[in-house]
Amino acid sequence: xxxxxxxxxxxxxxxxxxxxVAESLKARHGGAGVIYLEAQKTRLIEDSDxxxxxxxxxxxxxxxxxxLPNAAVVYDAVKDELTLFIPPINPExxxxxxxxxxxxxxxxxxxxxxxxxxxxxxxxxxxxxxxHNGQTAAFAIxxxxxxxxxxxxxxxxxxxxxxxxxxxxxxxxxxxEVALLRKANDISTKAHIAAIHASxxxxxxxxxxAAIIGACxxxxxxxxxxxxxxxxxxxxxxxxxxxxxxxxxxxxxxDITRVIPLNGRFAPETRQIYEIVLQMQTECIAMLxxxxxxxxxxxxxxxxxxxxxxxxxxxxxxxxxxxxxxxSVAFFPMDKDTMFRYLxxxxxxxxxxxxxxxxxxxxxxFIIDPVLKAPETGKYIDTEVLExxxxxGGVRIEDNIHITKDGSENLTTAPKIIEEVESxxx
Length: 426
Known about the structure:
There is one protein chain. The protein is of the alpha+beta class. The protein has helices spanning about 5-10, 15-30, 60, 90-95, 105-110, 120-130, 160-170, 175-200, 205-220, 270-285, 295-310, 320-325, 365-375, 375-380, 385, 420-425, and strands at about 35-40, 70-75, 80-85, 115, 135-140, 155-160, 225-230, 240-250, 250-255, 255-260, 355, 360, 395, 400-405, 410. Helix 2 crosses helix 7 (about 160-170) and helix 10 packs antiparallel against helix 11 (about 295-310). It catalyses: Release of any N-terminal amino acid, including proline, that is linked to proline, even from a dipeptide or tripeptide.
């Protein structure tokens, strides 16, 4: 039986990724040549002898699966040869950090053809350029090339095309990447459940944040994609708290949002809004498959929000009129001026991609008040009914969805059904 752990027991498919990036470059430039990438550098915190928190560069990891700092990689697309360069041993650091990986050990860990030291980068580049008689190009990313790195002997050095080629290639996830995302989601689900348990006794949001981070680290996500808690110090008990948080597992991130009732049950107004948002998300996810236009998904979310707010009496008028006037943007403010202005995706969804579906309804005076004061839109909002919902604050539900040819797969399993959330919160 194939499981996440059995998939991840194999090597990260670095060579397959390098080949895909090379094919993208070839399609754009007629040839892929040589790809050069560097890992993130270690840096000291200002006025300190401690290193800054380390996060690996995504392009480098995509072509290596390596989390080591100060490393590099070269891919010779003509020979289909992937070479990883790791830092040589620093005798002074061994006493503090132990022995680093040797080239032989690294070759067993990573899906590469050979492993050398970073002191061999320039000689390797020169050898490759010579073997191709100076007829091939070198591709790198601007501002991610160390001083002293020498591309002499190549026909050209392109520092603008590689980043785009990698970003476009990374849109389509292979089975290994989906397994990494599933692992990040599984760990993040544990963190969200820990947050619900912590909320029962927490006197401020900082304690809930600590529960999330602790659960992530304990289960293998040392870094977090995001932990958004708006109010980290207040002791005031609110009706609910919105948490946008996810762990990062080997550079692959979960991004999950849930709302927790702080007294164990959702207040009636919060429950009504939550039900609308859950319907928005459920119907939008059901719509997803290869080729679906994201604009259409976003429009559907707005229409469901309009219907729900009409039913509650917060909005008045017809669905079509409210949609055309963009009145729902006051409550679902993914954009400020037009309904589609700030969407992060403006295309048809390809199979293999992963997107977040995160509808929400928010009661924010700074956004709603201008709509109320404008004669052409204020007439559609019943202020007396609205007054009962300010305490809701906001409700957002966010899951990570893997797009397939015939539908989609939800990678997120954190509880979101009202009865499930309340049973954990009581």
